[in-house]
Write a structure and sequence with these properties.
By secondary structure, this protein is of the alpha/beta class. It contains five helices and ten strands, in the order H-H-H-H-E-E-E-E-E-E-E-E-H-E-E. The chain has two domains: 5-113, no CATH class; 141-249, no CATH class. It has helices at 5-40, 52-66, 72-89, 96-128, 223-227, and strands at 141-147, 150-154, 162-168, 171-175, 183-192, 195-199, 205-213, 216-219, 233-242, 245-249. A five-stranded parallel β-sheet has the order 1-3-5-9-7, with helices on one face. Helix 1 runs antiparallel to helix 2 and helix 2 packs antiparallel against helix 3. The longest helix has 36 residues, at 5-40.
Amino acid sequence: MKKGKNTIVMDENMEKNHRNSKVVGGLIVIAAGVLILLNQMGFAFPPFLLSWKMILIAVGFVMLIKHNFQKTSAYVLIAIGTVFILNDFFPNIIETRFFWPILIIGIGISMIFKNSSSSKKKAQTITTQEDDLHEINSEDYIKSASLFSGITKKVVSKNFKGATISSIFGGNEINLSQADFTGEAVIDITCVFGGVTLIVPSQWKVKSDLTSVFGGIDDQRPSMVLESISEDKVLVLKGACVFGGIEIHSYN
């Protein structure tokens, strides 16, 4: 189906945000390197500038730019970093023992409103742009959000379009061993103090475009499998992994 004008504009905006996030991310890394260098040379800086809390805030800020300030997990990262920095300066003002339950409640509320809003937008899009856009089947594009819990999903779609996966203090296991697609599929991952396991067919190529901070991706498929991978099917991983891990497995 031919793309409509609005769809093309949307793709261009997403690509622009992605480029901007890379530029901002690069500038933040350069700034961090300069601060570390100056610190080694004897210049004194406030401790929080080189702390894990500031790293969370920086990663959250980059994610906001990349997703046009519509990424809930980015606000979560910024909130966590900000609260703990403020707690260092004003230990008697912020009760961190109340912070986590309040944060969990806030995330739950945002998930409810986000789901309601996305449903309305989807219905409106289908109604007003039937000639240009079509609804992607829920089996072809999956969404999985894990918060202090574990989720396991099995995908059998033969027209897999991609996925959005969020693991915050939790885990996701997505089994794609019986799925299929043509060309390229993108999985957007947000992994914060959590883990994501992807089980994929052995012939798929997995390409990582993830922003990783004290985390990483590990392709645990046998070396003989990796040597026989073709370029026909490329699974692209995007997003961020902060204090977490992403593993790739294959049954073959």
